[in-house]
Write a structure and sequence with these properties.
10 helices, five-stranded mixed β-sheet, Four Helix Bundle (Hemerythrin (Met), subunit A), 9 strands
């Protein structure tokens, strides 16, 4: 079973890989659009910097028994203005740092990493005020940080190199958390007359299958079941994660050969139309 210590090591490895990559970028590349809509590469780094600072503060306060929300906290998850507020704060943090952005990103992550490494088993279960959300045990901040580093590193690098892959060691964690991500972030724009099931066979070293079920104006991800399957798809785990996070469209994945659909028709066009991220 994976330990928290292992996740701390993965967090550090992901941050180090991203830092090494950022150190190679030209000034022009820092201003290049990222895979995050309307965010430049430097804005994503600003977001990761602000995130590390926010997580460290929340953990420190929680460990001291302070569970109150900050006065300037984010809107709660699901709020229509949450994404806009996050973007504004990320860009503002980047602008305030100027040419110290990379150094501050590195320092903020090291501070958070040192704090997480110092926690005892009991500390990991202490409730802390998640930015804009409810109280969560400290270990969920570690998982969230690893997911953010892995996904945003891809956002940065894929904009400059479309062949780049997700941080491989992060895939089990991203896959583990994916049902919750899909349930919270994805909605159907049009109510369907009947549920539809897209079965994805993941073609990695340990093959597995997951169903994406579209029904009742919502989308959910489940382990392979006995329901009727309307469309069968094949891809690797990284491609599946990127599809479910809205980072890849089915059409892009099909064109690049990363996604194979067992159908003579084009069932992924309506999938893209129905499957929208809030």
């Amino acid at each position: 079973m994976e330990t928290l210590e292992h996740r701390i090591e993965l967090c550090q490895a992901a941050a180090e890989q991203l830092t090494q990559y950022l150190q190679t970028l030209s000034a022009e590349a820092w201003c290049h659009p990222s895979a995050c809509e309307a965010w430049e590469v430097r804005d994503v780094v600003g977001h990761l910097t602000a995130g590390a600072e926010s997580y460290a503060e929340a953990l420190s306060r929680g460990l001291q028994g302070d569970h109150s929300a900050r006065l300037d906290d984010l809107p709660p998850p699901g709020a229509p203005n949450r994404a806009a507020v996050i973007a504004q704060r990320s860009i503002a943090r980047r602008e305030s740092l100027g040419d110290q952005l990379l150094a501050t990103f590195t320092a903020s992550h090291h501070h958070l990493q040192d704090l997480m490494s110092s926690l005892s088993p009991q500390d990991w279960e202490r409730p802390c005020s998640y930015p804009g959300g409810d109280l969560r045990p400290a270990h969920q901040f570690l998982t969230a940080r690893l997911m953010e580093l892995a996904m945003h590193a891809w956002d940065i690098q894929s904009a400059l190199d479309p062949t780049v892959l997700l941080f491989p060691d992060s895939l089990p964690v991203l896959l583990e958390r994916l049902p919750g991500v899909v349930a919270r972030a994805v909605r159907l724009e049009t109510r369907l007359h009947a549920p539809r099931c897209y079965r994805f066979a993941l073609t990695d070293a340990v093959p597995s299958q997951y169903d994406i079920v579209l029904a009742d104006e919502a989308v959910r991800m489940e382990s392979e079941g006995t329901r009727a399957v309307h469309v069968r798809c094949q891809c690797d785990t990284g491609t599946f994660v990127l599809l479910m996070y809205g980072r890849l469209t089915p059409q892009t994945a099909l064109a690049s050969g990363r996604l194979v659909v067992e159908s003579t028709r084009d069932p992924m066009t309506p999938f893209s139309t129905w499957f929208k991220f809030a």
